[in-house]
Design a protein that fits this description.
By secondary structure, this protein is α+β, with helices and mostly antiparallel strands. It is about 25% helix and about 35% strand. It has six helices and 15 strands. The strands form three sheets. Strands 8, 9, 10, 11, 12, 13 and 14 form a seven-stranded antiparallel sheet that branches. A hairpin with an 8-residue loop joins strand 10 and strand 11. The longest helix has 23 residues.
């Protein structure tokens, strides 16, 4: 259990608490899994531990190649110390292969390689179902300006290059992923950094040889154990938590 402290925000998969120093937060990873805008829910024991370790691995790796993130350090098996940011109210989606909504919208076969990585945006609003929006909408409503969008695309493609290589090296194909971007200020200077998390919750991951799904589609489509899929990703990357073998079966919640 997380120690008692001031809760700043609780989402579907994480809780943010006040950090020990100004400008910091503690990010706690829950075991909850949701799909279809939270219409389907379950609790998978150990999922939060896996996502904490995997997100630490990716955020650290991005920092090492010069991509700025909110990650400071891991505190324990479920918590990270992160930099407090002003989240831009967008999910930034990068697609390398057709899957999910783009396959449905355009009538594409799942798994079809796209001619180049495609960057899309959805407006972060659970009540509206996170609708897809264009750059024109984003600028018109003041969520970000054109320079921000240029920087966001550059960041997203750098993340894509890094993740694609890391996953392919362990036999996993990065189909698509989503990230969030936050604003931070150093004096009067504003810059954009990668925030939230990077984990199998926010990526589509397929085995290169078999096409086996190793992401939240396992839960969405009832394809097996979500914990087993995430554990396999962590095992291949060499970041398997020490208590992974003790993870239990999911508990469905209404």
């Amino acid at each position: 259990m997380a120690p008692r402290r001031k809760k700043i925000y609780e989402g579907k998969a994480k809780i943010l608490y006040e950090g020990p120093e100004p400008g910091t937060l503690i990010q706690y990873f829950k075991d909850d899994a949701t799909a279809f805008n939270a219409q389907k829910k379950a609790v998978f024991e150990g999922k939060g531990v896996l996502n904490n370790r995997l997100s630490e691995y990716f955020m650290t790796g991005l920092g090492n190649v010069g991509v700025p993130t909110h990650f400071i350090r891991t505190l324990n098996m479920r918590e990270q110390l992160i930099r407090q940011v002003e989240i831009i109210p967008l999910e930034v989606i990068v697609r390398n292969f057709a899957a999910g909504s783009i396959a449905k919208r355009l009538g594409l076969e799942e798994g079809l390689a796209l001619p180049r990585p495609v960057v899309e945006y959805s407006y972060k609003n659970d009540a509206l179902g996170d609708p897809m929006v264009s750059e024109e909408y984003i600028v018109a409503f003041g969520w970000a300006n054109q320079q921000d969008l240029d920087d966001i695309v550059a960041l997203a493609l750098r993340v894509n290059d890094f993740l694609s290589g890391v996953f392919y090296a362990v036999g996993i194909k990065l189909i698509d992923f989503k990230i969030e971007i936050g604003r931070v200020w150093d004096g009067d200077f504003m810059r954009l950094i990668v925030a939230d998390e990077i984990s199998p919750d926010s990526c589509r991951l397929w085995d290169v040889k078999t096409g086996q799904k190793l992401d939240k589609d396992v839960f969405r489509r009832d394809l097996g154990s979500l914990t087993d899929a995430y554990t396999e990703v962590a095992r291949r990357l060499g970041v398997l938590p020490t208590n992974a073998t003790a993870m239990a079966k999911p508990t469905l919640i209404n």
